[in-house]
Amino acid sequence: MRRLGRAIERWIFRKFHPGVRAGWLTTSAGLKNRNYPYAGYGLGLLVLGLILGRSRRRIYKTSIDVDQGVTIRVLRGRRPIGETAPIP
């Protein structure tokens, strides 16, 4: 059962910045040991991770050879929101 919890935890934290996971683990450990400054540090990491966010704007640049086609797909997160027809 413990493995299932870790799998769910990884699935949830994969959606956030890595700082969120580090902050959550630090806060949990600090509260468990009643080390409140350590828990406060963990909360700071957690908030910083939420502010930084996971997604960054990416601009890709590439070149293609003659007689090659290309399709451009626009993603929002992991979902495609737009796609061009194959450009010859």
Mind explaining what this structure looks like?
About 50% of the residues lie in helices and about 10% in strands. It is mainly α and about 90 residues long. The chain has one domain. Strands 1-2 form a two-stranded antiparallel sheet. It starts with a helix and ends in a 5-residue tail after the last strand.
Write the layout of secondary structure elements.
Elements: H1 2-13, H2 18-32, H3 36-52, E1 73-76, E2 79-83
Antiparallel strand pairs: 1-2
Helix pairs in contact: 2-3
Short description:
By secondary structure, the protein is mainly α. It has helices spanning 2-13, 18-32, 36-52, and strands spanning 73-76, 79-83. 50% of the residues lie in helices and 10% in strands.
Overall mean pLDDT: 84
Query: Tally the helices: what do you get?
Result: 3
Q: Work out the count of structural domains.
A: 1
User: How much helix, percentage-wise, in residues?
Assistant: 40-55%
Adjacency order of strands in the biggest sheet: 1-2
* Main sheet: strands, sense, barrel: 2 strands, antiparallel
Assign an overall shape: elongated
Beta-strand content: 5-15%
Instruction: Give unreliable regions as ranges.
Output: none
Kindly name the structural category. mainly alpha
